[in-house]
Specification:
With about 325 residues, chain A is an alpha+beta fold. Chain A is built from five helices and twelve strands. In chain A, strand 10 and strand 11 form a beta hairpin. Classes of the chains: A alpha+beta (about 325), B mainly alpha (about 160). At the A-B interface, helix 1, helix 2 and helix 3 of A face helix 1, helix 4 and helix 5 of B.
Chain lengths: ~325, ~160
């Protein structure tokens, strides 16, 4: 055992001193090796196998540096990521704002398209107006639009939306116009049941979702689901526009008239763009002169006899 | 015997560490300032060892280093064989000299090593590295006292255990 240790030790520390001959031998060997290496005597195979042999050590040596680099990269990447994330968030916010605007525009476009569709069906001169203001008074259903006399709007013009008749221009200012909705308690609209052609008058109730036909005779042919259209009576509203759909018909034996409730087809409380309809008479002239003549004063709910007689005449 | 083996193991370990430190990649601008770890270790070993380091061992170590560092095979072997030969001749003289003289000796030993490198470089038709060729010798001499103290402490500790 001690001898093996001794031999082991002698591999590192030599017991005998060096002779110059030994030095010369080793030096010569080293120079020879270098010269061979320089001349490319070691072919690729030996080089490769040697490199393979020591590559684990080299990898081990480069490990800490790689680790540092990785950490550095990580830090840099994190910083970058934070910056990028910030930028992206900013952009996202901006895009979202844009997007919401776009979706609003899309809605608007859809509404306008349906309006245009309505117009193409009408083949009359129309003007698209946008709602500016809604009167909050629950008993006067009036809205203000951004078209006025300067656009050729005058009192009495019919206002539509995508669903149907919405109301009529009440007061036209140079830049704006006040529109009285069909649901206003003061508003009356000559209508006609599309199925039978029976004429009546639809009054506003003060509720945007309800119109009332108070003067339908008790035996009139009208039932739930009937479509009410403008009758064209009174020379103001052109005939054939959808107005409302009958919700319920109330016939009480003690009353001479049935009470008919209808739901407006136009979105009285939701529309944003409306279509102002030029009366056919004024399409070419579109002046305010015959505006006066075209004006139909708001129908008086208390005196609906005139149209009632017309209804009874038709039967 | 046991102490000798332990000392030897410690030196093997240190030489491995020295090779490792020589392999450790450094940024390019620091590469020239890398201390010649293995040379310093070999100097210390032949200075403190009871017997000179065997030339065969140093030769093999040099070949290993050449393969590891992918330098010209035989270069480190030649450098360290010469270094060990010189140390065997002069170690008894500088062992008890003043630290400054020791530093100076180490500097000249390392300078000799660099001369061998320069000689090889010139033989190969390469240009010398200019001032940077000599920087490791200066660095090695400068850190020699620190290394000497550190290694002596280490040896004392390992012997005490």
């Amino acid at each position: 055992m001690p001898s093996s240790i001794n031999r082991n030790a002698s591999s590192l520390f030599t017991s005998n001193g060096f002779s110059t001959a030994r030095l010369m031998a080793y030096c010569l060997a080293a120079v020879l090796l270098m010269a061979l290496d320089q001349r490319g005597a070691y072919n690729q195979k030996i080089r490769t196998s040697l490199a393979t042999l020591v590559s684990p050590v080299q990898m081990l040596a480069s490990l800490p540096v790689e680790m540092f680099e990785a950490i550095g990269e990580n830090l840099v990447a994190r910083e970058n990521l934070l910056t990028i994330n910030q930028n992206l968030e900013d952009r996202l916010l901006r895009q979202q704002v844009k997007l919401s605007r776009l979706s609003a525009l899309e809605d608007e476009a859809r509404r306008l398209r349906s309006l245009l569709g309505a117009r193409s069906g009408l083949r009359v001169n129309t003007l698209v107006a946008e709602l500016l203001h809604i009167d909050l008074d629950p008993y006067s259903h009036k809205v203000i639009v951004d078209r006025g006399q300067n656009d050729g709007v005058f009192a009495g013009m019919v206002v539509l939306d995508a669903g149907g008749v919405m109301g009529q221009v009440d007061i036209a200012s140079p830049e704006t116009a006040e529109i009285i909705l069909i649901s206003d308690p003061d508003h009356a609209l000559p209508v006609q049941v599309a199925r039978t052609g029976m004429r009546s008058i639809a009054f506003g109730t003060g509720d945007t979702s309800i119109l009332m036909l108070p003067n339908v005779s008790i035996n009139a042919d009208i039932k739930q689901g009937d479509l009410l259209q403008t009758s064209g009576m009174g020379q103001l509203f052109p005939a054939g526009y959808s107005v409302a759909r009958v919700m319920s018909v109330e016939r009480s034996p003690g009353h001479p008239f049935a009470r008919v409730w209808a739901r407006p087809l136009s979105q009285l409380d939701r529309a944003r763009e409306v279509l102002v309809l030029f009366p056919e008479k004024t399409i070419d002239k579109s002046t305010q002169d015959n505006a006066e003549s075209a004006v139909l004063p708001k129908a008086d709910p208390k005196a609906p006899e005139a149209d009632t007689s017309a209804v009874s005449d038709s039967r | 015997m046991n102490a000798l083996r332990e000392k030897q193991n410690l030196f093997y370990l240190l030489l491995g560490l020295g090779l490792f430190l020589s392999l450790l990649p450094l940024p390019d601008n620091l590469e020239a300032f890398r201390p010649p770890w293995v040379s310093l270790l070999l100097i210390y070993m032949s200075l403190q060892g009871s017997r000179p380091v065997s030339l065969g061992f140093v030769f093999s170590l040099g070949l290993l280093a050449d393969i590891l560092l992918s330098s010209l095979i035989g270069l480190h072997a030649l450098q360290w064989v010469v270094l060990m030969f010189l140390m065997a001749k002069f170690s008894s003289r500088i062992r008890f000299s003043s630290p400054l003289r020791q530093m100076l000796t180490v500097f000249f030993l390392l300078l000799n090593e660099r001369f061998i490198l320069l000689w090889v470089l010139l033989l190969r038709g390469e240009h010398g590295l200019g001032f940077y060729l000599w920087v490791p010798a200066i660095i090695g001499a400068l850190i020699w006292p620190l290394m000497f103290v550190f290694l002596s402490r280490l040896r004392q500790l390992s012997q005490r255990n």
